[in-house]
Amino acid sequence: MQPMHDSMMFTREELEAFPVVTDFSVKLFDAGEGGMHLEYASASLGRLAHFPAWDHVDRDLRHFIPSDVPLGTLAEPYDDRDEAWRILVFEDGGWIYVAEGDQPNAARFASRFRVLRELYFQAWAALVDQFNPITPLDEEES
Fold first, then answer.
1. Within-domain flag for 97
2. Is 108 a member of any domain?
3. What is the pTM of this model?
4. Residue 125 and residue 70: Cα distance in Å, rounded?
5. What is the reported pLDDT for 7?
6. Strand ordering across the sheet containing 36-42
7. Is residue 4 part of a domain?
8. Is the pLDDT reported for residue 61 higher than 70?
9. At a CB cut-off of 8 Å and minimum separation 6, what does 95 contact?
C-alpha cells in the first residue's frame, strides 16, 4: 500500500516502535530575538521536539482555539518545516505521533515519540488556558 502523502513513510511496525511518552507537556522557552518558542517536553526526558521557526508563539496563543493545535492524520499529517528542520504530527489509533528531523525534506527523523491523544490535548489545553482562558459568561457580567 502506498502512502497517501509523500511525507508519510512509516510502516505499522515503525509506528509501534515510536517510544511512548507518559509525562508529556507543551512548554514555552525564551529563544532570544525570536521571543518565546514552543517545545514538546517530558519531565523525565527533557525536550522531545520544538518549533524553531515559530517566533513569539506567546502572541499567537492569545487567539488560539482547539482547531489551531498542530495535528493531522496518518494520510495527511501536520507538516511544518524550515531550512534545517521538519516536524510531522498526526493521529492514528488513539495516539498522537510526532517525528522531528533536521532537514526540510527529512524522511528520517532523529526524534520520534507518541503520546495518548487525551494527554496531548490536555497538555495543549493547559498551555492555551494560560494565554486565552475561557471565562464563563456569568463572570463577565459581574
1. yes
2. yes
3. 0.86
4. 12
5. 44
6. 24-30, 36-42, 46-50
7. no
8. yes
9. 15, 18, 114, 115, 116, 117
